[in-house]
Write a structure and sequence with these properties.
The complex is a heterodimer of chains A (279) and B (359). Helices cover 74% and strands 0% of the residues of chain A. With 279 residues, chain A is mainly α. Chain A has two domains: 56 residues, no CATH class; 211 residues, MetI-like fold. The chains are: A mainly alpha (279), B alpha+beta (359).
Amino acid sequence: MTSSARSTPYWFLHYGLLAFYVAFALFPLYWLLKVSITPNDLLYSEGIRLWPSRSSLAHYTFVLAHSDFPLFFKNSLIVSGSTAVTVTLIAALSGYAMSRFDFRGKMWLVGLMLITQMFPLVMLVAPIFKLFSPLGLTNSLTGLVVVYTAFNVPFATFLMQSFFDGIPKDLEEAAMIDGASRFRAFRQIILPLTLPGVAATLGFVFTAAWSELLFALMLVSKADASTFPVGLLSFVSKFSVDFGQMMAAGVLALIPACLFFLLIQRYLVQGLTAGAVKG
Amino acid sequence: MASIDIQGVGKSYGTVPVLHNVDLSIQDGEFVVLVGPSGCGKSTLLRMVAGLEGITRGDILIGGKVVNELAPKDRDIAMVFQSYALYPHMTVRDNMSYSLKLRGTPSERMSHVISAAASKLGLESFLDRKPRTLSGGQRQRVAMGRSIVRKPKAFLFDEPLSNLDARLREQMRVEIKKLHRELGTTSIYVTHDQVEAMTLADRIVAMNGGAVQQVGTPLDLYERPTNLFVASFIGSPAINILDGILRCDGENRHIILESEEQLPALARIQGRDGQAVKVGIRPEDVQVSIQNAGSRMGQVELVEPMGLGTILHIGTVHRTLKAFVLERADYPIGSNIAYSLPADRLHIFDARTGQRIAD
């Protein structure tokens, strides 16, 4: 059926439902923004008004100038960025291997990788702490990068594999006959065609690491190696929660994630659909 | 350019054999076509020559040198794929120059070679376009251009025309043939289309079930098929096959068909009395006459006019025979028609082994 054949009520319902869904999904973000610009004295007195009668950027100024937030922010950026790059690099190689090669024990390897995704991470906190503390990896950003990388590689591998599966083998065979080694064919022919996959993997891993709390909280006890989700908790004190500052920090924390997705969205849209069809 | 020798080559996937003991010697400059139904191992054999598949047994030699363990890039061969396998993110020019770049060809020489190849294939105006903006036929040309720019030892074609429509396929077939005449490069061409095989090949290698059935010139295979498979695979419309028993009575040979009709056979046919046989006769060898009554009569069941000639389906009590006639006479459906099967045009095969009985 062509779009013009559908009736007006259909489109009304169509967009109505979409609008409802978008509003539902984005409302918490809106509330985050609203609370972050509401002065403290109005926060409780005005109840659940959709927009405060008076707005101020005082929370932002405080968070940026007088809290450790810039440090947390920098730490998060380092941890998430390094994790995303490392995981994508490993997953590109392992995903390619999974897609193209048959080797002994492949089934077992896939099975093991699936198993790592099956149980709750909280079970692993204690053993990992035990392993990391003699290695000096607790209270360090490197430690977090190592943990995040380990946890994200299996899923990222499967993700990349589905992208490689969607690229015909003929292409690298043609390159190999043209005179390229397998690695060169991978680098010059296959990888450029997998950019959507690379972008999707980068985005996925970056956000996963950016919002991770459990390990960031358990492996790091000093403020100088804390990431921003842990930092957010510092706005919660024994007797009160400073919602305004917390939300302002939250809004600021959204910025890099948004920028990142803005950067890769061109590939991502392509990528998600490709993944959906192929994988 | 180089000769290619395939010596006792076999291939198994695990315990499943896909190629048995293939021996084939391809002369320098020869155009050899591997033909057979899907799954007969022809593509696998080609990929083994290219180095894209490992070799389980035997040796492959290119230019007299064993290449079994050589990576594809070191074999100096070019291949055209069925899917064309053009690099989608590169322009036509970059697609064609990729192999030259990898070999460190100086850029003036590279642009010279590419414009020469492009003009040969009529691609000059497409050089700066991406493959996705090209039609199937144009992509096919780019794939060819990519292989000819670097003067390889051999061209390998893996069903390169299968994705094109009939008209374009015919056109590209001619171009491939011309190109081969011009360049004289040793070529192996894989196809399941017997017309392509017949028209292109210096020699055809007919394959089935992972084994070579017959090697010879196109007319060899057409006129003296070595077994039932080759007889029925080569030729369109396909050969008629009848069941019968060979009778040897001194010097006299004849065949009793299932329908108990007698068919005279050539006296020099080997074989024993009472041997079960299959008799093949090509549709154009079936002689028909609508005016005269003859000893064998049938009815026209179906008429397929082809322009060049007409395929008649002649129904008899026991079977339907196909006859190909050139004259444009009118053959009304249901009309009686006399036909004969000349003894010197019969191909006689052992019914059990399917092998040709020597004549």
